[in-house]
Amino acid sequence: MEPLKLFIGGEFVDAARHKSFATINPATEEVITSVEQSDEADVDRAVKAARAALRGPWAQFDGAKRQALLWRLGELISEHSDELALLETLDTGKTLFDSGKIEIPFAAEVFKYYAGWSTKTHGTTTSSPTALKCTLREPIGVCGIITPWNFPLMMAAWKVAPALAMGNAVVLKPAEQTPLTALKLADLSLKAGFPAGVFNVVTGFGDAGQALVDHPDVDKIAFTGSTEVGRIVMQRAAATLKRVTLELGGKSPQIIFADADLKSALRGALTGIFYNKGEVCAAGSRLFVERSIYNDVLSGLVEATAKYTLGDPREKTTRMGPLVSQEQMDRVLSYIDKGKAGGAKIAIGGNRAAHVNGGKGYFVEPTIFSAVTNEMAIAQEEIFGPVLAVIPFDNAEDALQQANASRYGLAAGIWTKDIKKALRLAQNIRAGTVWVNAYNLYDPALPFGGFKESGFGRDLGQAALEQYTETKSVWVDLS
Questions:
Q1: Which residues, 6 or more positions from 21, have their beta carbon under 8 angstroms from its beta carbon?
Q2: pLDDT at residue 145, as a whole number
């Protein structure tokens, strides 16, 4: 690929210092292309371009005009889905099926969903004989959006779409590991007809993200990433009292009861942990199984996992691609070692898959641990890889207590035919999303976000719009 540039003020431009970095194909460890590396000066240029857009033509776009642009951008994502899927797969290591059949189409759907909200967000009015009182919903202003490497385009869509629908301007900083689809989205925004400066992309490392958080003319930060970095974002944003929403880490429980449809539960448990190589914030990485069926479930999991095919994520036969980077592979392998040292037993996997691609690529075998207690590091700390901890429980109360014994609260899954039991647990599990007899399913209309150290604020749904608007009260004296 040709070297890629920053996107600022409606143009692809060089970084101020003319520095660049390589983005790596995790399946081959080869360079895909070089990308301009932004710094504080580039972020400042992007913020100024966004601010100018808010004072310029974008301010004259009513909801109907914004709706047309967002809808067109959604259409363009669909029209370029093959290219976007290939870019996503090359950059992240996820399978081409996951990119092309699930994630890129969902990103397009999100833009179309929020296109509709552009014309349907209103204030309120009330009156008396002496006054007319109303509220206005106004855009916050310049929104800095920092997205992770596991779902690059989809996470951008979740934040960029509602921000633009409400009339804000955006500066997007994608993860340095996966910048390709963000820059393609910038190109598509030009084709859709967005005015210059409404949507900007600055690529680079943590210092660029930090500059965005620190910038005094940025009004809002939307961040998805680790809890550790989320704390830093929140601390630094406090200096300028920015609005902040954080979607952070997770250690999500799945609970399988003896009365569940075990075939569906096994499939859901495997999808919950091995989809996208386990690099999912909502991954069901703690699997609680009722003790009477524990051995049967464990053997079923092992049997199904043994059939997973690792390899080139572009091949149709590949079930699991590589982890995103050397750093992430080393992290996952270190947790596997930590699990073994802590007394857990490997039921399957547990190694780097050195036999794949002639030893090239950041492949890790899908791994299942048995003999796990809920206090172990592999059951409490986010691994962000294809590593499942299987833990027995005795009854519903025991399952609930163990599920909630975590500093995270992003998601949970419940597998049972007893709807009353499922609803009682769903009401009492401290998590932002609870799936019943399903896992890892999303709808643009259904809000997603966390409790506890999994963050605050919501992506998706009408709830997300509140994160991108200010409410102004207006009192008109009639006396």
A1: 34, 35, 37, 176, 204, 205
A2: 98
Q: What is the pLDDT of residue 103?
A: 98
pLDDT of residue 270: 98
Global confidence as pTM: 0.97
Q: Is 247 a catalytic residue?
A: yes
| 188-230 per-position pLDDT tens digit | 999 999 999 999 999 999 999 999 999 999 999 999 999 999 9
Asked whether residue 34 falls in the same domain as residue 143, the answer is yes
In one-letter notation, the amino acid at residue 150 is N
Reported for 226-229, long-range contacts at CB under 8 A and 24+ positions apart, including other chains, are 226/382, 227/382, 227/408, 227/453, 227/454, 227/455
Backbone phi, then psi, for 244, in 5-degree steps? -140, 135
pLDDT at 185: 98
Print the domain residue range for 23. 6-248+454-477
What are the residues whose beta carbons fall under 8 Å from the beta carbon of 290, sequence distance 6 or more?
Answer: 256, 257, 258, 392, 393, 394, 399
pLDDT, tens digit, for every residue of 99-125?
Answer: 999 999 999 999 999 999 999 999 999
Catalytic residue among 88, 109, 279, 281: 281
- Is 165 domain-assigned? yes
Active-site position among 109, 247, 290, 453: 247
pLDDT of residue 357: 86
Asked whether the beta carbons of 201 and 41 are under 8 A apart, the reply is: no
Q: Which residue has the tokens 């059949």?
A: 101
Residues of the chain with pLDDT under 70: none
| pLDDT score at 315 | 96
Are 429 and 464 in the same domain? no
Residues 311 and 230 in one domain: no
Total domains in the fold of the chain:
2
**85 occurs within a structural domain:** yes
CA dihedral 315, 316, 317, 319 (to 10 degrees): 90
**Consecutive H or E run containing 456:** strand 455-456
Same structural domain, 21 and 158: yes
What CATH number does the domain containing 23 carry? 3.40.605.10
Whole-number average pLDDT of the chain: 97
Residue 449 lies in a domain: no
The DSSP annotation for 334-371 comes to: HHHHHHHHTT-EEEE--SB-TTGGGG-S--B--EEEES
Distance from C-alpha of 41 to C-alpha of 50, rounded to nearest angstrom: 14
